[in-house]
Amino acid sequence: MSTLTIAELEQPLLQTQQDRLRDKFGRAITDLRLSITDRCNFRCVYCRSGQGATPVHELPMADYARIARVFLSMGVEKIRLTGGEPLLRNDLPALVEELYAMRTMDGGRPDIALTTNGHMLAELAEPLKKAGLSRITVSMDAVDPEIFARITRVPRSYDRVLAGIRAAKAAGLAPVKVNCVLMRGWNDDQVERFAEFAREEDVVVRFIEFMPLEEDKVWSRDLVVTLDEIVERLGKVGDIVPLPPNFASETARRYGFADGRGEIGIIAPVSHPFCGHCSRVRLTSDGKIRTCLFSHLDHDLHGIMRRGGTDEDMAAYIKQTVDKKEERHHIGDVGFIKPARAMVQIGG
Ligand code: SAM
Ligand code: SF4
């Protein structure tokens, strides 16, 4: 795929520690969310519109690989592949293999993660693990096939997603994380059932507060099931205990059950924002940097490549863009304006 040799892939750009990516608020940028397509085979109500064709934006995989290599040379340590639905790209295992051959600024292997809807995961879990994937998150919004179908607007995928989760575990991608976006009136009755699911399937279930990033503009505060409410409901399933974060910029608040079986995470960007320790930047599938999910600006990194820019030109552009990273999002503030692009186009 790439014309670079293994030795060149392993060669960092040899920048100094002072060049390590940091925004003007002092936050170290160590985490790149890399969207490799904005196509999707689902139409989740909280993300995509229920109807209409949408134009496809995809770059050659070699371009994403080059962009990733430049970010890794600047202090990024984790790359999460996302979309749209990333498993729709045929050559995904080859991209993972290429990323795994790269080196971070400190000379280590990058941590490569993937977020998927799981529909095609049963067949791909093992090749992805073999290619070097470290971790996987599967989105699943109900433990009930009918509710699942209503939310994803796909009639018969529930069993496939479940098989995908089990295949990921069997391939050694544990701990598998299962993301569930809760929406009042749609799947808020699934909290207790997911707690049991986490314990039975030995996965980490993570509830996510619904954010105003959907194409259909249905978001309202009333639809958000908040962290406090989720914690209260989990308490009815069993004694839950808060667990320490795995790392400083972890977005999920972690909870375990007193008997040690099952783990729950709650990601609460609406009721308990975590912008102060945000370590992320995003690259959209058309090669634009997004410094925040709620940015109103795209920064055209791929434009630099198209015009024949060098890796150093790209690094300089990344540095100046990261400097513009927003201090925080403004969901719920008076005058909040929803970004023009939806989650499916930004990359979650
Ligand atoms: N298609 C893949 C999937 O669904 O896992 C990857 C892309 S999806 C945009 C990434 C994550 O964003 C998913 O876990 C999804 O549930 C979450 N997401 C999408 N729209 C959201 C919204 N409006 N609020 C909160 N989370 C959202
Ligand atoms: Fe597709 Fe993922 Fe968005 Fe659902 S959440 S529509 S699976 S991109």
How does this structure look, described?
This protein is 29% helix and 16% strand. It has 348 residues and is α/β, with parallel strands linked by helices. It has a single domain (6-346), classed as Aldolase class I (TIM Barrel), CATH 3.20.20. It has a twelve-stranded mixed β-sheet. Helix 7 (191-201) links the parallel strand 5 (177-182) and strand 6 (204-209). The longest helix is centred in the middle third of the chain and has 13 residues, at 158-170. 46% of the residues are buried. S-adenosylmethionine (SAM) binds next to strand 3, strand 5 and helix 11.
Key traits:
single chain, 348 residues, alpha/beta, TIM Barrel, twelve-stranded mixed sheet, 29% helix, binds iron/sulfur cluster
Tell me briefly what this model is.
The chain has 348 residues and is an alpha/beta fold. It has 11 helices and 12 strands. The protein has a single domain (6-346), classed as Aldolase class I (TIM Barrel, Alpha-Beta Barrel), CATH 3.20.20.70.
* CATH H-tier superfamily: Aldolase class I
Question: What's the CATH architecture name?
Answer: Alpha-Beta Barrel
Task: Based on Cα principal axes, name the global outline.
Answer: globular
Assess the beta-strand content as a share of residues.
15-25%
Q: Helicity level, as a percent range?
A: 25-40%
Structural class comes to alpha/beta
Tell me about the largest β-sheet: 12 strands, mixed
CATH topology: TIM Barrel
